[in-house]
Each structure stands twice: as structure tokens, then as C-alpha cells.
Amino acid sequence: MMQVNRLDKITTLAITMLIFTMSSIGFFMIEQESTERQELEAKEMPRFAVSPGHTVFGEYVGAHWCGPCMGSASPSLVNLKNSNTDDFTYVSFFEGASSGWPSDGPANRRNHIMASSSGYPTFAFADETSGSCYKVGSSGSNYYDADFSAGGCMHADASDFNMALGISLNSAGDTVTTTLDITYLGASAITVYVYGAVTEKIGAEAYNDGSRPHHVFREWLLSADNDFTEVTLIPNQVETLTWDKPLNSVRAGGGNTQWENFWPVFALMDGDYSTYNEVYAAIDLDMAPLIDIGIVDFEARNANGNNGFVSGDILDLEVDIANNGVEEYSDGGSIDIYHLSNGEEIHVGGISINQLSSGGTQSYTAMFDTSDITQAPSGTSSFRARISGMVGDRVSSNDFLDGLALHDNPPVPNRPVAVADSSVERGTPIQFESTALANDLVDDMSTMSAELQYSVHGTNIWDNSWVTAIDMVGTGGNSRYIHTITPPMSSQSGFYDIRMQWTDSGGQSSDWEITENAFELRNALPRVLGPGDDGYAGIPTVKVDTVEAVSILGLVSDAETSHAELIIDSNAHEFISFDPQTLEISVRFDEMSYDSIGNSISQGIFISVGDGEDINSGTLMFNVIENGQPRWSGIPTQGFNEGGSSSLVLTEYLTDTDDSGNSVPANTLSLSVVSVSDESLVSAEIYDQTLNVASVDDDSFGMVEITVRASDGVKESDTVIIFHINNVNDAPAIDLGEYSNPILQTGDRLTINVLDMVSDVDDSQDDIWITVTTFVPGAVQYNPISGLATMSWEDASEEMVTVTAEDRHGASSAAIITVSVVDDLPLLWADSSGSGDLIADISSTDFGLNPSVIIENVGSLELSEIKVIWSVCNSITGICNDFGTSYNMGPFIVLANNGEGLMIGDYVTLSVNAVDSQGFDRSTTEQFKAYATEPVEITPEEPGGEGNQSKPTFSLLTAGLVAIGIMLSIALVMGLAIVLQRGRREVVGVEVYDYENDYDYSSYEEPEPSPLVAPPPPPGMAPPLPPEGLPPGWTMEQWNYYGAEYLRRREQQ
Fold first, then answer.
1. Where are the beta strands (DSSP E) in 523-668?
2. Could you read off the pLDDT of 560-586 as tens digits, one per residue?
3. How far apart are the C-alpha atoms of 89 and 55, rounded to whole Å?
4. CB neighbour list of residue 661: distance below 8 Å, 6 or more residues apart
5. How far does the chain reach from its first CA to its final CA, in angstroms?
């Protein structure tokens, strides 16, 4: 009680002292703040920092309550801006007393700047995050001058950018248009990102001391996708950007109206707002280059207007300069032009620089005679314009500019090449492909023209009237001309020469390139048509012993000569005459011809056909039939795609007569298929008078002749119908075979010959492109040369490998190989039904014995590299004391407890690892367990059953007394344990050890009572309980059984 009162007193005293201390600190802070405010009223005269010669940009973060912000950082920035108006600008992210921090999303520049800061104020030159250009804290009124004069960490090419900035107010007076012009003065194109912000020139909210921050951020000027505007700048080309923002984006302040306070600030960076960037240049409405006289353009032009020049032409060398600054320039200087020859500058001419207002320009042109220049293939002549002698010019990178004048040379033709066969029949077009070398940098194929002429070989009589088309095909270096020559049917046959001449854009022509015997015109021979020829009318049918007139249309053809002009003759006695008026030949066959089995066969007449220039010959075939026999007219060649079918109604091709020659209806004739020339290709059948033809399979194609017979019941006649079965491309076939579902062990490799799986009825394997892919990168490697795919995985899973085959026609197919990747395969202990792989036979599990183990392989697996791992663990202590390995199935001995044999609570575990006949690792998925048992002592019955009945037995009274004694003993022990436990915990400095963390017996299952197991010892015989009491999760019956073993193992630890 005294301790409590003393503690209360101490606490009260401490609280009193704490209140007094805090009050004193507050008083001193107020005093210090008052002192600081009074000191800020004394303004330090600003010093003027030296300009680094280019613009510098920075970003500032401060707050209205921040003493160093209002006392040093803000005045330092204002002084630096006032002393270097044209070279310095910045943006302030200011926490106002009423508005708080500005909303600067999506760029979030305040967090961007403060990422490496420990407090306010923080100022970053050129988006820096460390070093001298990253300032945390401030002192004095010129804190940033030295780093500004050192360059402000701006990019080394800061002087290569020229920017102009302007704003305008719309007629309504509520929208401000900001216009930014950017000019890059470097050598090659560059991509920049435009940082743009609307600021208040003088902040509308003040610091706590009444001073105001400048350039206070209000709103972003971003691109359409809310990012810094990305711009690619071309040297010396102005890029103009505009933004429209409400005037009320800013507030009036510091004596400025809203319009006067609308103050845009821009910077050029090499990245967007998500990164820290290099900064090239910056500008606000106060900034512009003071003096920058630069060359805007310099060009060497041919006075005659041609793109290049030939020796003797006069070149106009014209240079344009401009005053890029904001001030008028009148301090002189000179413009000079030079010819660069062999590393020397040879002066061509020059002039003084005039007085130039801001934005003013001056041009100067010098003429150069090229008579002394030697033309070279693909040659150029170089010239240079330079301005020098200026006073105060701040940008030197635009003080000179080089130009080129291109040598213009005549083209050099290449020999033309025939696109296809150079020997054609008259009337057949022939094409020639031609190209030429421009021989200079002025022309290419698009600026040159080509003329092709032809002549009968050796005559040199050139003409181009047969040239019917001139086309340019291809692009770039693959451009070429195609001249099409279409000779008329009346043209002279024989060999022809051609010649080519090229003319460039300057009018210079090449020499004629002559190719002798470039093409040949052949006379088109007349032909006797047969099966397979386009337009063939089929075999005509004539009656035997009858003069028949047969049209030659569809039987004879000439590409150049009409049928009426052909001369047809024959020495065959069946041939009578040819009538050019009716276009019919008259024939008469005296008899019919039959094959060996009595079927009539076609007969032929050998004829000659002349067109007045050449004579050709051939055989005309006829179906000669009896009078009164059914007659066939010519049936056109038929066709269908492979795998398809076709039906042809034959009635319209049939006629029939009776014995007297009178016509009878053809639909009464009976039709049948006599033969099919290739039965492996198609099947044919006739239903009524319709011929049905179908492919035998989906992949066969070719030509087949089907003989069809028409019969009137007495006489019959045959005709041959030709069918073309067209080839249709089939996709490649993939047969995975035994590899559809392979099993692969992790780390092993499986190699499959994919080429053997792929086949294509249409294409060879060389025309098939095969790919093998899977989801795991690098798991499958396919060699397209050998066709072998090698696959391996490090992790067990089910993987899918896709095999894709594509032929040269674009048809493709795919198949999936499902690979089961395993670490190992299971071995199963046989169950009670005998189903499984292994059976364990343990000789004995009695206490005190070391068991002998034999494992029998009862499954179908052939196992090798056997490894049996055994252990002896104790279910009471949860500890495994003994381990061992056998490299065969036994018998082997399990040495338990250092050879002392199994003890109470022990159990034996067995695990088997092996390799099967296919090389896969196998292991048992579960451990085989056998628990130690107490030896069973069987006491034989004593002889003389009746004598046993005289043995004394416990009476009911005796059993009751024993039970009461046991209960009292247990109560006494538990009471003593509780008293001791409480006493130990109340002793100061005594550590109570909780064995619950070391042993967990909650899962231990109490063994089933057995009549063969000795009963637990009586209460007086049980081992003493530990000081902390019964182990967690134990029952007293378990302690009676196993308490002694528990204490023994505990003493050994």
C-alpha cells in the first residue's frame, strides 16, 4: 500500500514538471518566432549572379508557415529572377494559409520534388534529386546564385534551343490562349517533352510575414492525353503549340490583375512526368534570347532549275540569316560562302551583315561556275556558309551551315531480261524487265524513263509500235520497268533484236543497249484436238456404210488462222472431202471394228492440216456404229475436285433410230458403265440415264476415262467420257502415335522425331514448315534441319506441346502432345486385399527386440537401385531416435534405441525408393508404420478345475476400499502439485519452464485395453508427477502407463 501511495506521488510530480516544461518551450518558441519576423523586415540588398549563358529552370516547394521559406528561399528566388530575367525561371508549389497545397495532378510534381527531401524549403534545379543542384533548407537572400552561375545542372545542349512565348485574351475576356514556338538549332532531329504550367506571377496568398511567393503553380498545360506534350523537333523548323485556359485559373495578387498575373512557365525535358529528366531549356514571359544571329537556310541550286548540275552549269549559292533575338542588332559582321575542295575552304563571295531588327532576315546569293569541277559517279560538291564577326552573339551553333550540289550524270542501262519464255507464237504477248543505274544522287528509277525498240534480227529497222504497255513495278531499290510487246497475228515469224535507252530528269540520255536475238516469233501450227485439249468436242459418231458430214469445230484448231482458211486433206480411203463453207468433212466407213471380245471400237482417219505457212497432222477419231444403233454426240470433258463427285445427265447426248433410220426417243435406251480406266481413282454408276461419278478417297486426283454403253435391247454403242479430278491442297497430317501422352521425369530429356509424325499427300517434307511450342520458355527445342524436338522440364506438371505443320500453300494442322512431367512415380503398400506393390514382413514388434524386416515386391514393376529408409520414433516424446538405410529388400535388422530394442511408445517407419524398368524414379507415397507391442504372456490353465474355484477372490468390499484409496491418493497428489506450482510462480526471480512448447501429446491416442496387456500399476506404484503437473493433453491413465519413460527421456535432454 505504501508503494502505491509513493508511486502516486511520483506520478503527480512528474505530470506537474511536464506541464511546466511544455509551457516554457511554447513561450520560447513564440519569442523566437517574433524575433525572426522582426529580423525579416530588414531586407538584404540582392547580389547579381553571373549568367551561365543559357536558360536555367527550377522547381520550389514551400509553405506559408515555413520560416526559412519566407526568410531566405523565396527572397533568394526573387532576387535571382530579377537579376537574370532572361535566363532564369521557376515554378513554386506553395501551401497557402487558406487554400492549402495546390492540386498538381496528374503530374504530382510536389511529391516528385520532395521524394528525396527531409523538409521545407526544397528547391531542385533541372529536375535533380541530389547533389549541389538539389537544395533542402536555405539561408541568406542569394542562396541559389552560385549553382545558377555554374549552369544550374541544365543539359549541355541548352543553347541549341530557341523559344518564343506569347499569350492573348479572347474577345469575351475569359479565356487566355498561350502560344509557344520552339526552334531547335542542332544538327539532327530530337524528341522533347514540354513541361508547361500556368502560375501566378505574384502569389495571391502571402507567407505569414506578409511577403508573397512568385510563380505560384495553378494549373498544368498538358497534351490531350494528360501528359507532358511530346514533340519531335526538326532542325531550324519552328514547332508551334497552343493551349486555351480560363483566365480565372489565376487570381489577382500583389497589385496585379488576373490578366497581369497570368504567368505561363515552360521547360523542355527528355522524358515525361513519370521520370526524372534532363532539362534542355526554359522560358516565361520575361525571357527571350538577347542576341542570336544565325543561319536559317543555305542551299546550292542549279540556275537552270535542275536538281543536279553538269560541268559548266552556274550554281546559285543562297544563304538566309535571321535575328533570332529580341533586340535589334547593328554591330556588323560578315556573311561568307566557301567551296570545300580537298579539305580547303575556297572563298566564293561575301557581304556584310545589315542592321537587323528582332526577327529580321537577310539573304545573300553568290554564283559559282562549275566548269572546273570534274564529274564523278554519285558525286557531290560541298559548299559552306559562315557568319562571323558578330558582337554579343549568344548562340554559335547556328553560325555556319553546309550544303551540297549533286553531280548529274547520264544513266547506265542494264541488259533487259525476258520475264517468261522468249520464244512465243504470233499474237502472244512477251514482256521484258529492265533497269538502269542512275550513276548519280540526283535520279532514281522513278525519275528516269526507258524506251524499248525492236527490229527483225540483222535489219536495224527499229520500231516500237508493238509496245502496248510500259509499267513500273516494285518500290525503292526493287523498282523496274516492264515493257509488254504484243506482236500481231500478221507479224513476220523469226528472231528479233531489241534495244533500250534511258533518259534522266535532266534530259541526259544513255547509249542504246542492244540485245540481239532477244525473242522469237513462231508460227502457230494448226492442231488436231484430242482428250485433254481445251475446247475438244469429243469423239463424233457416224453410221457405218453411210456418208456422214462431221463439223471440224472442236476437232481442229489454229490460233492464227480461221477454220475456213485451213487446208484439210487425207490419203485415208474413209476421207471424202473438206468443205470450208460448211466447215464439215465428209467421211464414210465401210465397216465397224471390234475388240477381242466383240465390242466396237473407235476408228481413226489420219489427216493433214495446213494454214498456208506450216502443215501439221493428226488423227481424227470416230465412233462408227451400225445403222439403227444408238448414237452418241460428243460429250465435253467433265471435272470435279478430289474427294468430290459429279452427276451428268446423258440423255441430251443420245439419239436412236430404228432399223430403217427413223428416230426413236432416246429416253428408252438402257445405259450401263462398261469400264473405268482407273478404278482406284473414281467409282461410276448409272441411275436411269444419269452418270454418277465419285472419288474413291479424298486425296487422289488425275484423269479417268469412263466407257458408257447405250442399248436399245438389240443394238448398242459405246462412248468414252473423260473426267478430270482436280487436285485440292490438303493440310499436312500429324500422327503422334506413341507420343500422344508420354511420361517424363523432371530433369530428363525426351527427344522425338517430329518429321516422322508429319505427312502430306500433296507436298514433300521439304515444303512443310513445322513448329513445336510449349508454354514454358526454353522447355522445348526444335531443330528444323534434323526434325528432332528435345523437351525437358525442371518442375513436375502436366505440360502441353503443340506441333504445328504448315504446307507451302498455307494449309496447316496442329496436334497436342500432353506430357506428364513427374518427380517420381508412386510405390503403394499392399492393402488388405493384396492390391499394391510392396508388402512389409516384420519379424516382431515386441518391447526389447530389434525387428527383422523383409519387403516383398508383389506388384508387376521391375525395380532396381533399391533404397529402404527405416526409422524408430516414439509417439510419446515425438522424437525419432534411430535411422537406417538398406539397399535391398531385406532381410535387414532395425536397431532400435542403440540396440536395446523397441520401447514403450516406439514405432517403426519404412520408406522405399527405387527405379523402375523404364528409368523412372519411384517412391512410396506413405510411410509404412508398425507400433511396438508389449510381449504377450499366456499363462496355461492349472489342472484341476474345481481346485481353482477354492482360490481367494476380491470381495465387493475390498474392491470398494481400493477404489476409495486410489481416489484419495490422486486428490492428495493433485492438491500438492497445485500448491507447489503456485508457490514457485510467486517466488521472485524463479523461472517457470513450460514443457508444453517442447512436447505436444494432445494427438496421442490412448491404446485400446487388451486382456493380454498387464493392467496399470496401482496408484501407489505410479511414477511421481513433475513439478508443473500432468503434461498437457495427458490423462492419469496414460501417465500410469508411460510416465516413467517420459521422465527418463526428460532427464536425458
1. 527-528, 541-543, 547-551, 556-557, 567-569, 575-579, 584-588, 593-594, 600-601, 603-610, 615-625, 631-632, 638-641, 645-649, 654-657, 663-664
2. 788 888 999 999 999 999 999 999 999
3. 8
4. 627, 628
5. 44
